[in-house]
Amino acid sequence: MVKKRKKILLASIALLSAFGVFAQGNGNAGIQEATQMVTGYFDPATKLIYAIGAVVGLIGGVKVYNKFSSGDPDTSKTAASWFGACIFLIVAATILRSFFL
């Protein structure tokens, strides 16, 4: 009776350890798949950021024009801030894309 229990225990331990060995083979494939999925989003995201930068540039141009035509003395500061925002968006998108790809 005791020998039978030992054999059952030994067989169950061997079976459970074999399951662990079979489960370890797919880790590298999962990491590669996740990397491909993440890098696949960079091109559309970069184009989206460029489009947002273009819209921000147009809005900034209209606001600067309105200030300039109304004679506001603060026009150069407004133009510099909008221009800086557009440059930041473009440079950030380019640097992030080159850093991760």
TrEMBL record:
Positions of transmembrane segments: 47-66, 78-100
Signal peptide residue numbers: 1-23
InterPro entries hit by this protein: DUF4134
Keywords: Membrane, Signal, Transmembrane, Transmembrane helix
Record-given protein name: Uncharacterized protein DUF4134
Organism (species): Sphingobacterium detergens
Organism phylogeny: Bacteria, Pseudomonadati, Bacteroidota, Sphingobacteriia, Sphingobacteriales
